[in-house]
Amino acid sequence: MTDSADLLKIYAWNVNGLRACARKGYLDWLHGSDADVVGLQEVRALEEQLTKKVSQPEGWQTHFFPAEFKKGYSGVGLYSRKAFDEVSTTMGEERFDREGRTQIAKLGKLTIANVYFPNGSGTNRDLSRIPYKLDFYDRLREMLQPALERGEPVLVMGDFNTAHQDIDLANPTTNRETSGFRPEERASFQQWLDAGWTDTFRHFCAEPEHYTWWTYRGNCRARNVGWRIDYVLASPGAMEFLMAAEIHPDVMGSDHCPVSVTLHRDVLG
């Protein structure tokens, strides 16, 4: 039996606005959780717009990366019980970096990419952002592929804004032309798996009706009419240490719920 001290628990959660989520109990969840690392997406606030209790909670090291060009948009954040060795926020292209979507953190030998992948819908729901989204997918995968091929443990986690297969949303037939389930988006997600990454939740669970996002309309969450668009992907080097992968639909505070993985702490080296 593995002692809990030997485990490393890592969560990803699109909080749909950290200030709003904080009003709905984010800190109670954080302090009561078994998390060692939490990666947030869609923070939608500058660090100075957050209270100190939220931006620098006792017992946690934090790092935030907001969008440069637009307040209240996008943004990612990391909370860790131990300080990261380094955090990089650049993808090498200004059009991606300005939207505050990526943190690549090192914790010992483990690399954690906390990512808010773009939505393909434009401001008029016109699918105009799909080319940008697919370019983002390709660029990040290319950046991380050398570490995967070297056998390093790497996790890519967050809101991918794509449901991979029919099993990953409640109504696949009526959403095939909707951004998030269009063929080109699903094919781009599949390229990650073809390159050697593992969808950690599906590694353990092949059952339907497990979702991570529900629209606020129509009481969809209570009826579990949702989409699974939040993932933790693991490199082969990380899979050696993977012990569990979970979805946490009972955690409220956002239209998404957290997802998590548990690894043996030896992954840190």
From TrEMBL:
<feature type="binding site">
    <location>
        <position position="159"/>
    </location>
    <ligand>
        <name>Mg(2+)</name>
    </ligand>
</feature>
<dbReference type="GO" id="GO:0008311">
    <property type="term" value="F:double-stranded DNA 3'-5' DNA exonuclease activity"/>
</dbReference>
<keyword id="KW-0464">Manganese</keyword>
<dbReference type="GO" id="GO:0006284">
    <property type="term" value="P:base-excision repair"/>
</dbReference>
<feature type="active site">
    <location>
        <position position="116"/>
    </location>
</feature>
<feature type="site" description="Interaction with DNA substrate">
    <location>
        <position position="256"/>
    </location>
</feature>
<feature type="site" description="Important for catalytic activity">
    <location>
        <position position="230"/>
    </location>
</feature>
<feature type="binding site">
    <location>
        <position position="255"/>
    </location>
    <ligand>
        <name>Mg(2+)</name>
    </ligand>
</feature>
<dbReference type="GO" id="GO:0008081">
    <property type="term" value="F:phosphoric diester hydrolase activity"/>
</dbReference>
<feature type="active site" description="Proton donor/acceptor">
    <location>
        <position position="159"/>
    </location>
</feature>
<dbReference type="InterPro" id="IPR020848">
    <property type="entry name" value="AP_endonuclease_F1_CS"/>
</dbReference>
<dbReference type="GO" id="GO:0046872">
    <property type="term" value="F:metal ion binding"/>
</dbReference>
<dbReference type="Pfam" id="PF03372">
    <property type="entry name" value="Exo_endo_phos"/>
</dbReference>
<feature type="binding site">
    <location>
        <position position="42"/>
    </location>
    <ligand>
        <name>Mg(2+)</name>
    </ligand>
</feature>
<feature type="active site" description="Proton acceptor">
    <location>
        <position position="256"/>
    </location>
</feature>
<dbReference type="GO" id="GO:0003677">
    <property type="term" value="F:DNA binding"/>
</dbReference>
<feature type="binding site">
    <location>
        <position position="256"/>
    </location>
    <ligand>
        <name>Mg(2+)</name>
    </ligand>
</feature>
<dbReference type="InterPro" id="IPR004808">
    <property type="entry name" value="AP_endonuc_1"/>
</dbReference>
<keyword id="KW-0479">Metal-binding</keyword>
<keyword id="KW-0378">Hydrolase</keyword>
<dbReference type="InterPro" id="IPR005135">
    <property type="entry name" value="Endo/exonuclease/phosphatase"/>
</dbReference>
<feature type="binding site">
    <location>
        <position position="161"/>
    </location>
    <ligand>
        <name>Mg(2+)</name>
    </ligand>
</feature>
<protein>
    <submittedName>
        <fullName>Exodeoxyribonuclease III</fullName>
        <ecNumber>3.1.11.2</ecNumber>
    </submittedName>
</protein>
<keyword id="KW-0460">Magnesium</keyword>
<feature type="binding site">
    <location>
        <position position="14"/>
    </location>
    <ligand>
        <name>Mg(2+)</name>
    </ligand>
</feature>
<comment type="similarity">
    <text>Belongs to the DNA repair enzymes AP/ExoA family.</text>
</comment>
<dbReference type="InterPro" id="IPR036691">
    <property type="entry name" value="Endo/exonu/phosph_ase_sf"/>
</dbReference>
<dbReference type="GO" id="GO:0003906">
    <property type="term" value="F:DNA-(apurinic or apyrimidinic site) endonuclease activity"/>
</dbReference>
<feature type="site" description="Transition state stabilizer">
    <location>
        <position position="161"/>
    </location>
</feature>
